[in-house]
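[Q] Does anyone have a clean structure-token version of this?
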Amino acid sequence: MSDATKDESGTGDGTRAVRAGLPEAVKHEPTLPGPVFAAHFHLPGEVTGPYAYGRDDNPTWTLLERAIGELEAPGRDDVETLVFASGMAAISSVLFSQLHSGDTVVLPSDGYQVLPLVREQLEAYSIEVRTAPTGGDAQLEVLDGARLLWIESPSNPGLDVCDIRRLVEAAHARGALVAVDNTLASPLGQRPLELGADFSVASGTKQLTGHGDVLLGYVAGRDAGAMTAVRRWRKIVGAISGPMEAWLAHRSIATLQLRVDRQNATALAVAEALRTRPEVSGLRYPGLPDDPSHKIASQQMRRFGCVVSFTLPTRARAERFLQALRLVEDATSFGGVRSTAERRGRWGGDAVAEGFIRMSVGAEDPEDLVADVLRALDESAG
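[A] Here you go.
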């Protein structure tokens, strides 16, 4: 992982996060204006200006979109960002705005568990779907003739990593667009657009907002024409963020660097503790020096994320472990300030063992969290 946390202008990640997207200061006005609740705006005469109807644009979205763009592509003015009602709304907007009947898309076979449902819908529209695992850059083998390559790195929940630069170069050489799901890394962990991708897509529900109280998604893109199609799709389906959610998200971004650094450091401590336990197998965390993904992750990621995955011997052992935890909530999702964990196989759709655990490390004291995990492993052994 690179130690560099400043861009070419010398601005650090923390400074950027706390100031991202803020408007020019106005005397007696708040630093971050409150949410604008408006379905319509005053619009006499001809339609001019940015705000006309609440499904198309909103001043609160504008500030949030600016903030996310500054994190995903600092110092660039050729990147557009659009926010959505959820991560899946953002994912769908790219897939269904860029693909047409007869096109081919390459998806990860080990990606987010809703992707199989997406595949069914794409195929219903006569779009060919090919899949390959994230690890080993296996998607390269099925790229020929594709219109779009969808990358999820690190993958969820298995935490495999691919060489994004390599896949982007290969895809572009074949005339394909590339979208990267950046949810697990966050923009402070990885910048797909700097690695050459056409789209960086993420669920803002996770670490970006970090408090488990906002559903949000976003798409950041470099190509104006492609992003016009994404914006049009958002208008058609109405997959828009509410102004309160957008404002909460913007407020939460101010603490992103603080949360990410704490969570990443603690995730590494948890992973190092788990590697000493004989009942734990399949431990994955890209920040571990001996993790299969560490080499390539350290070349393209600036931080390694807050998620640790591992497998316990049986479903029953995994359930006992989760019940024994005191500082970790048994819940889905990840990236929040309160640690969560779940037996991922309970949902179906993921090719994981019955005892597979996905753990999201929060902002608790590292020593407390490690002690809780080790104690729960001891108590669940019986």
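[Q] Thanks! Anything notable?
[A] The chain has a mean pLDDT of 95.
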